[in-house]
Amino acid sequence: MNLHRPVTTLTVRGKTCTVTSPPARRLSEVLREDLGLKSVKVGCDAGDCGACTVLIDGEQHCACLTPLAQAAGRAVETVEASDDPLMTGLQTAFEAHGAAQCGICTPGMLMAALELLRAEPEPGQAQVEMALAGVLCRCTGYAKIVQAVMQATRPVGAEPAPASGAAVGAALPRLDGRAKVDGTEVFGADECPENALALCALRSPHHHAGFAFGDIAAWTRAHPGIVAVITAADIAGENRFGVIPPLADQPALAETTARFLGEAVALIAGEPEAVEALDLAGFPVTWHPLPHSTHQAEGAATGAAQLHAHRAENTLIRGRVARGDPDAALAGSAYRVTGSYETSYVEHAYIEPEAGSAWIEGETLVIQACTQAPVMDRDDTARVLGLPPERVRIIPTTAGGGFGSKLDLSVQPLLGLGVLRTGRPCSMVYSRSESMLSTTKRHPGTMQATIGADAAGRITGMVFHGDFNTGAYSSWGPTVATRVPVHASGPYRTPHIRATSRAIHTNGPVAGAFRGFGVPQAAICQETLYDELAQAAGIDRLAFRRLNVLSDGDITPTGQRLDGVGIAPCLDALIPHWARALDDAASWNRDQPGRRRGVGIASCWYGCGNTSLPNPSTIRIGITHQGRLMLHQGATDIGQGSNTVISQIAADALGLPVGQIELIGPDTALTPDCGKTSASRQTYVTGKAAEAAGRALRAQILRLANMGEGAALTLEAGRIVATEDGQCREIALGARAPDDHGYALSAEETYDPPTTALDEDGQGVPYAVYGYGAQIAEVEVDTALGTTRVVRMTAAHDLGRVINPLLAQGQIEGGIAQGLGLALMEEFVPGKSANLHDYLIPTIGDVPEIRSILIEVPDPEGPMGAKGLGEHVLIPTAPAILNAIRHATGARITRVPALPHRVLAAIEASR
Amino acid sequence: MTSRYLRPTDLQPALEALAAGGLTVAAGCTDLFPATERKHLAGDILDITAVTGLRGIARRDGDLIIGAATTWSDIARAELPAALDGLKLASREVGALQIQNRGTIAGNLCNASPAADGVPPLLTLDARVVLRSVRGARELPLTDFLTGPRQTARAPDELLTAVRLPQAGLAGRGHFLKLGARKYLVISIAMGAARIELSQGRIARAALAIGACGPVAIRLAAVEQALIGQTPAEAAASAPDLAGMLAPIDDIRADAPYRARAAAELVRRLIHGFDAGAQDRAA
């Protein structure tokens, strides 16, 4: 009998390692915790995401599915433990192609690709897809990953670094890319202080339940190694948080009633081995299940259980934009269309579950965790803990994807509670199901609209209403309720409109921010109806949109006069693609009866920054006495690229090469507030602050050097040299007295978008800058099975000024992948799909070829003309796909996702 | 308390340990690990992946014997008769390579998911499972082994050591189609397998099976009979009537009526795949 002792040897990078873990332990844990190989990421512990992919004897395996015993005596390769030149080539290619955005899936992708390249150094696309199919990416849309792998052994010469003044517009690989490809990037679970306790939460197994605790002290005593159990009764501050402070309502730990499945009710702190061994089934808690609702219609129903006593009819908030006389306009319209639509809960499904650690440094509680909003985290966490904000420091780890959900608190207050109670450092890592159960979702919506057009096809008016399921707590419900009516018309002249919304509480998961704040849902309603309206009016669907688009000087439904409107050029750029796609579909359909192809189009507009609320960003740039150029960049880069884009803008505004910039932050102790990474605001708002700071510092330098605006600057060791017209002046940095920030020279500038409040009819200036776009979807529908394959997407987006085309394409490709998921497969069913095999996101085989067209219609307000892009990119995708399905089959899809059974039913209904 | 982790290299001690009780049999662990959020396998483990002779495919007296610990990648890479083409296609649909490199045929059967991709093609091959224990060995048709969702006829002291494919079932060519809402890494909405022997262009024998449309995957004996004598093109002219044969459920992937219709269409396409002139692609 071979009874395994807990000593196992395996070979890592040619060296034999001996570990003393239990043989049944997941190899991923052994590699990360025993051997420190943190490139091995844990995304699901179920073989669904592939983030932990390593090579065992040259073959790819999920380390999370491999018991240590089965790796005994075998060679294990990870990113950091690979010295294969093919890996070097892959890493270089991933950086150059922008194949890593957040970077959490990158190590797994690299390992899967390494196995492939050893067998096939110049693989074709199909081979790459097959080899990498087991690794999910939520950011990139996969195209750049496929390109990088295909070209990894065919390196092209590196582009020269942009010179002074030439950074903006350059396809610069991300400045923070190296750590993403060499396995050293630090995500929430990757660093943990010595001697830290582990935290785990007891969560409600019911959608709605009262609860009472038994003898917790006795339970604690019976579990050696458990140091503390914390409940709401232990919370010193205000036990409620929320991204919109006046509406903050979510307890860090529920007090007497759990309002959704997965809500935390108690926090357990203990030695890591003790916490890992816990069986919470015996925890002394008694549940009293209560009636519950999870659908907006249930929450809104008469007699529904009320979630919050002070919010009558479970209504968190209503939104309204009204202008003109839409009822009369519709009554007098030559054509009128009406439709109802329903969307589902959608999960962000970033590959990194929430994680972080915390400790005390002097008087300060330091929380290092994944986030999109460090300053909001600090203030909200401090309130829960009863600390002044200045005693809380937030150090964001690299967010392994965010997409809106990591704007809300998750581990932060729990970490704080653990540290304050125990006096020990603490760490907390959510499991996949914990992440999916307890964090926010995209709002499900039930929407109705009627839109009219005159005999010439011009939009006359619109009436829209959307009920949005905001779940148990407020989170970003008010933002969705406000944004949706503002954007309900789409980027079209709509002289008469009444667009209303209601955010309804249910016992479903908390619905919060997800790339687009409700606008992608509303776009499904409006853009599919515009197709019907175009058909009713007998006008080509693109031409109909072109006829109605907003132009400079037009007045929006909120009464705002627009400038720098780029939707017409987007549609114009698509015209040749539209004609080609329609021809392709027609010729395909002549001899493929069972597989119908169709073409759809949809547009978007989207206001950048908070809706009618302040959202300033502050950027500081300093030059040290030694001549180093430091950019205090407080905008969290969640993969979208703000570390690079903000640097490019700052560099050009200052007039120094972007390659000289060293990034500091984000860190609430080191960087001024750049607000949250949301609302497509960082390039615009923080970029504008960076531009101002760069210009201010340049002005200081030129003043000191007594040189004109046209002078060229060079920064060298200990000095700045300004040159103009053959004249050369030098500023000796070492001789200067340190300024308030300790720099030889520095500048700090703040920018806040000029907006105005909306009145009760939603009239005002909600945003200072809008971005625009339009996309064509080409799909193939299997008319007997109802399956839909997207064949190609063509996307034209107006960025105002393209700061970085490589990163912009990455945003477009990734946004389209998420839009495709929204359209075709993503449906979070509370209690049924809290994992990545029941909840489906697109794999490498689902995202089609994407052609990006970047349009530049400068915005008068944006930095160097730039507009936001991050959310815009997924808004048109789902409606374009649905319009293409209808074009292909006649099927009118009114509920997403368009799963095969729904499509087949819609096809039948159309016959 | 330390859990036991046994990883014997011989079958007899494995069976003896199993007879003593209390052990969970582990192979590729692609179902065991997802069933727990813990950092290690739960309970006392009998890991059979080091047992000599349990991995690989061999011919014996004309039959094919697939060892219990044979992985899906092993099957995909093996040179096998055309009757196993469906099983090979299925082997590339069990997760992606990371899963196929670990997941075993015995694990797929003992886990007994109604949506196990390996089952329909094995049913069309008239597969039998070999169960061994200290009490001896027995063999069961796969149809008798799978008794319900997550339920099998395996006694607690038995180890599924091999799948036997009788020679009689190795004639003809196999095919497999899987239907899911995305391309890779997807649990089937429905899937089907076929093995058809043609004689002068006409169907001489047919074996059809459908999975994920009831508590266990099933053979479609009545449909099989009706195909005899037709050309594949004739037989695939319309989807068969499967009314009363399936017992699909509504779940998050699809509703029951859709599953029944899709299953019929899959069967039609499977048969169509045997039409030499057909250029149809897989579903």
Q: Can you describe what's shown?
A:
The complex is a heterodimer of chains A (911) and B (283). With 911 residues, chain A is of the alpha+beta class. Chain A has 23 helices and 33 strands. Chain A has a seven-stranded mixed beta sheet. In chain A, strands 2-1-5-3-4 form a five-stranded mixed beta sheet, sandwiched between helices. In chain A, strands 12-22-21-20-13 form a five-stranded mixed beta sheet. In chain A, strand 31 (770-782) and strand 32 (788-798) form a beta hairpin. The termini of chain A are far apart. The model of chain A has no long low-confidence stretch (mean pLDDT 97). Chain B is α+β, with helices and mostly antiparallel strands. The relative contact order of chain B is 0.12. Residues 279-283 of chain B have low confidence and may be disordered. At the A-B interface, strand 4 and helix 23 of A face strand 1, helix 4 and helix 10 of B.
Structural class estimated from helices and strands of chain B: alpha+beta
* Whole-angstrom Rg of chain B: 19 Å
Strand content of chain A: 15-25%
Q: Give the helix proportion of chain B (percent range).
A: 25-40%
Give the overall form of chain A: globular
Mean pLDDT of chain A: 97
How many individual β-strands of chain A? 33
What are the low-pLDDT stretches of chain B, counting only 5+ consecutive residues below 50? Answer: 279-283
* Straight-line N-to-C gap of chain B: 50 Å
Radius of gyration of chain A: 27 Å
Rounded mean pLDDT of chain B is: 95
* Strand neighbour order, sheet with most strands of chain B: 4-5-10-6-7
Morphology call of chain B: globular
Main attributes?
heterodimer; A: 911 residues; alpha+beta; 7-stranded mixed beta sheet; 5-stranded mixed beta sheet; 23 helices; B: 283 residues; 5-stranded antiparallel beta sheet; 10 helices; 25% strand; globular; disordered C terminus
